[in-house]
Design brief:
This protein has helices at residues 5-9, 11-27, 41-55, 67-71, 78-94, 99-110, 113-116. It has a single domain (5-116), classed as Globin-like, CATH 1.10.490. It is an all-alpha fold. The termini are far apart.
């Protein structure tokens, strides 16, 4: 049985550490921080950890709201999406995730862009 991306990333604890760094970066970025002003960040961090664990092949099932519904009223555009993706890549790099594995994570998120980008 081949090792999953989840395993290569180091499992749930490692993903949680990446998520912490990722949201620190996002919240420090004035271009996108406003999207999170009224958000319970502790809950969102836990939710995002589960989400990333799921999309990377971990032994968890994502049971959150569908992405289109969750992002429908946020007016996120393609530029916002790219900024967030860049912060995710940088957070992964901070934890010495290989370039190939970082690319695989970002590609998995990019597949969801049409559900997240809601700006006309």
């Amino acid at each position: 049985m081949s090792e999953t991306l989840y395993d290569r990333l180091g499992g749930r604890d490692a993903i949680a550490a990446v998520v912490e760094s990722f949201y620190d970066r996002v919240l420090d970025d004035d271009r996108i921080a406003h999207f999170f002003e009224d958000t319970d960040m502790s809950a969102l961090r836990a939710h995002q950890t589960t989400f990333l664990a799921s999309v990377t092949g971990g032994p968890v099932e994502y049971d959150g709201a569908d992405l289109s519904s969750a992002h429908a009223d946020l007016d996120i555009d393609g530029r916002d999406f790219e900024i967030v993706a860049r912060h995710l890549d940088e957070a992964l790099a901070e934890f010495d995730v290989s370039a190939d594995d970082r690319e695989e994570v970002v590609a998995a998120i990019a597949e969801l862009e049409s559900a997240i980008v809601t700006a006309e």
